[in-house]
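Q: What does the assembled structure look like for these inputs?
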Amino acid sequence: MRALPLIPIVVLAGLPVAMRPTAGFLAVAAVAGSLCAAGAFGRWRPLITAGATLTMIQYAFALTGAGSSPVSAAVLGVSLALVLDVSEFVRRFQRATMTAPALSRQVRHWIASVSLGVVAAAALAAVASLVRIGGPPALAPVLAAVGAVMAAVGVGGTVWRRRPESR
Amino acid sequence: MTGRITRASLSTLSLLSLALLLGVLSGRAELIFASVPLVLRLLAAARRPVASRYTLVHELSASRLFEGERTTVTVSLTAETSLPQIEVFEPLPFSAQVLSGSPRTVRALAAGATARWSYELRFPERGRFTLGNVHLRFWEPSGLSAVETIVRDPKTLHVYPRAAPLRRLPVPLRTQASAGNYVSPLVGDGIELGEIRPFAPGDRVRHVNWRASLRRNRLYVTRYQQERNADVVLMLDTLSQAGTGSSTTLHASLRAAVSLAAAYLARKDRVGLIEYGGLLRWVRPGSGRPHFERLLSTLVQADVTFTYVAKDLDLVPPRVLPPQALVVALSPLLDDRFVVALRDLAGRGFDLIVLVVDPVPIVRSGLSKSLRVDTACRLWALERRIQLADLATGGLRIVEWAPDEPIELALSRVSRYRRPRAQVG
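A:
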């Protein structure tokens, strides 16, 4: 069970290399994958975050000059979420006895998250291709930045409203 | 119940922010699409948790054990509402060993379902432990949020020092009035033949010895020796100890005390206990199985409590320390205040035996082997030999006991110092 996070880690680290198969990308992907794997095996979450961050930056570089690739975006998003989910699952239930119903329920949750993530990313891509923002093109990054900040604040506010209660 | 967001959500939030930032900086919508699964993950964690209803029963197969014995903990959980992912964990005492099963389990239960599991624990050290505080954690499947609660059904588990069977015991010099196993020098009712003497007014007819009377043409009566019990008071030194972990002089003293108490109680004697340390505690002499349980409960709590105060034995009521009692003191003799108390007892005429638990091998076993340690231990052993010889010269009956040798062997050396008037029947 400890090796379970390796599957999404390989997918996550391999995606930018698949998009741009060069030695430099391969080396960075190897570092990112190693960081994630070390974090998963060492049960140290910051390493996984660091590896995922490196992969995401690498993905952003891989996109430059490439054509539109919504499928790779969906794969990246889903594998990113799975890496976090699976490594967290393995970390928190280390040395605990896991019953078969609990494990099958967790696997069902992963399948549902993957399906939902793919569908939602595809839906967003479809909507984005249909809806174009009017106005001068220079305004687009500003609008995107405002949207990104609002989304981050909204999600953060929703999450941190339920901070741990003191005991 | 306490709901909380775990630190894993911070990683998700960081990566989400990074994806959005990179999307804005690079002007590529793919990074925004890639952030969608992360947003869904966070939104799932932000949902209000559904109140879970359940019944948890925690059972122990035995609540009183001797060192090294096992108990089985059985937990049964009945879900009244669906429990998609529940983690059940019971914190165990440090010294407990899990032999089978696991005190930490993850389960998924449908509404109305019941799960029952058990695990076996072994307790190698004496102590009083509390079990039954079960921690429950209802996880959101992504692990980003959890609701925690503790089901408190505390049960006290007593782990008593193990008693070694003793066949030979130091015989008390003085007996008490109650019936027991010691043949008293006094004649009266009993089964051991005492004397045959001429009939005197007041003698009962059933005591007439007809064979002697016919032979001598005069009435003779048979008298028997009385069978009496004795009071034994175990005096435990809790002023100081040597050693570490479960290998200390106090642990050894406790095992000896339990063995002595069990053996004397089996001989119908009354056994009392004085814990002489920072806290002066005692148990009045008594007999029987319930009294043995009382002694064990007191002994299991015995611990060294530091104090500068020298306790006076005058504080101990005479009922706890009867004048005719045999006092068996168990001590490593590391604290002079205990030596003073022993001299006080001997001066008051108590029948006193000092079982000295040798601290040198105990301390030595906890140290790495080296020439320096070896020399230091030998010097210490020599110093102690001189100290014990001084005490023996002062009138104390001292028997040294190395805890790695059978206690019976040490007790057999007691008889060399004593001339018992009574014998074991």
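Chain B touches chain A through 64 residues (CB under 8 Å).
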